[in-house]
Amino acid sequence: MGKKAATAPAPSSAASAPAAPAKVEAAKVEVAKAKGKASKKVVATEVKPGLLSYLRPKSRWIFFPVFAAVCAWIIALNDQCDIKGKKKDCGYSGITPNACKTHACFLKGGKGYEKRTVKVTLEQGAALGLSLSRRDGAVVVSSILEGSVSLHNAAASTSEDVILAGDGITRVAIDGKVATNLADIEKAVNRPGAGKAVEIDVLRSRLPSFLQWVHNKGGTPNMVEKLLSSPGTLHFASVWSRVGGVGFATWYISGYSPASLPLYATLSAAVAWELSRCCHDESVGAGVPHCFRSKRDELPKVVQKAWAQTSDKLAQVRKDPRSYARWLFLPTAITL
């Protein structure tokens, strides 16, 4: 009996041994289910492509190198500093070459306001039709009323020959009488006439309306006014907008994300700066400015010149390709 009692637990432990593989299989099934649920969640949380991705092609790297090569081609073949005849001074006494080529062109000629004289003919029984106000000690046109000025503006051929709201008026001359202060100018603009010619000196801001707050009230343009209104800055903005437009179109068809847009903008700015900067020459004679303004040709003209130079060079290569091949591939002898 003692032996049987001692060996009685053995069958129960043996019977429980087959349960281990079953638990392992059950655990595997649970892990598989958990993975399936996780994969379904990942699929469900995937971001759907936006509308722009349907309109743009797949990413192609070739477009940026092509745009960069065209920009380098324009810069390499431009002749902006090849000035024939009189050179326009772009600097000051003692200016360094780096200062001349970097920022001088963006400050020279910058004026906060532009002064011009507009001639208006008074219509029969009509006054000029200007509503005036005083702003910072100056006489300013607050609005254009019905009168001779509105008729003059409608018939003007260019925007430079019109009077606009916001323009300053410094002088009005009519019938030999000159008015320069607010009271006299108000009397002059409200005086009707018939066929009389009136000269009006207009002072117009060269800055857009949202930047006119930077004007120096003292009259002398500050550094910001010069920078924003200089001919060099205006030419830079014109070229940058054109080259940048081509760069934006190139980026769009390249299929890359907006993160690459600064590269196109930087290359466009480099071309605009090269075509707008001033030039420096130390070897000029007396009386000729060392720092002078470049040609500042419009972009289409620059491209036409570069293409003409490229065509001429290709014609020379076709005429004697062997000499250019020797120059390109064979080492040049160095004479000591």
Give the topology string: H per helix, E per strand. HHHHHHEEEHEEHEHHHEEHH
The count of helical stretches stands at 13
Overall geometry comes to extended
Rg, Å, rounded: 38 Å
> What would the average pLDDT be, to the nearest integer?
79
Instruction: Describe the main β-sheet briefly.
Output: 4 strands, antiparallel
Short structural description:
With 336 residues, the chain is α+β, with helices and mostly antiparallel strands.
Could you explain the architecture of this structure?
By secondary structure, this protein is of the alpha+beta class. Helices cover about 45% and strands about 15% of the residues. The protein contains 13 helices and 8 strands. The strands form 3 sheets. Strands 1-6-4-5 form a 4-stranded antiparallel sheet, with helices on one face. A two-stranded antiparallel ribbon has the order 2-3. Helix 5 (about 65-75) runs parallel beside helix 11 (about 260-275), helix 10 (about 230-255) packs antiparallel against helix 11 (about 260-275) and helix 12 packs across helix 13 (about 320-330). It is extended.
Topology (elements, then pairings):
Elements: H1 2-7, H2 9-16, H3 19-44, H4 51-55, H5 63-77, H6 97-102, E1 113-121, E2 130-135, E3 138-144, H7 148-155, E4 168-174, E5 177-179, H8 182-189, E6 197-205, H9 223-229, H10 231-254, H11 261-276, E7 278-280, E8 291-293, H12 299-319, H13 321-329
Helix pairs in contact: 5-11, 10-11, 12-13
